[in-house]
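Quick log. Single chain, no ligands specified.
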Amino acid sequence: MKTLVLDIETKESFTEIGDKNPEKLHLSLIGAYFYPEDKYFSFKENELWHFWSLFEKAELLVGHNILGFDLPVLKKYYQKNFQGIEVFDIMKETEKNLGFRPKLDDLARGTLGKEKSGDGLKAIELYRSGKWQELINYCLDDVRLTKEIFDHIKEFGYVVYPGILGKEKIKIKSPLLARVK
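-> predicted structure:
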C-alpha cells in the first residue's frame, strides 16, 4: 500500500484566530514521508502543487491527529475530495483505548524513547522569524517520530503510553494494519 506520513505547521494558533476550528488556520509548511520512495519531503504554502502530486499517489495517509487537524487545515487548499484515501490516525487509534487524546511526544517517549524537538507554538515563531530551515527540521522531526511509531505499530501491534504507573502498552487493532504489513 502506498503510504504517506504527513504533518503540517500553521501560521497562527487557535488563540490568535479566536476559534478552535482548524479550517480557519493557514498552512505554513507540510512535512511528509512517502514509503514507496523512502524519502522525506517538505513543502511551503507556495509549493503545494508539488505536494498534491505526491498526495494523489497515496493510498493510505498516516498522521497524529491527522483527522482532527491536518486534513481540516488542508481542505481549503485542495480542490478535490479527500474521499477514497484511507487514513490511519495514530492519536484516534490510541484514544479509543486510553479514553483521552495522547500527545505525540508521550507516545514517542514511551514507544521509541525519543522526544519531540518542540511544539506547534515554536513552529509558528520559526515561521514568523523566517527561519525556514529550522521550521523544516522541526516539522520533519515530527514526521520521523510519527513514521517510527507507525512502523512500531505495524511490526508489534501496539504503542507504549508512559502512564502514571509506568509504561502501558496500548494494543492497536485496526483492519488497515493487516493491509500495510
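Helices lie at 14-17, 48-55, 66-75, 90-98, 104-112, 120-128, 132-156, 175-180.
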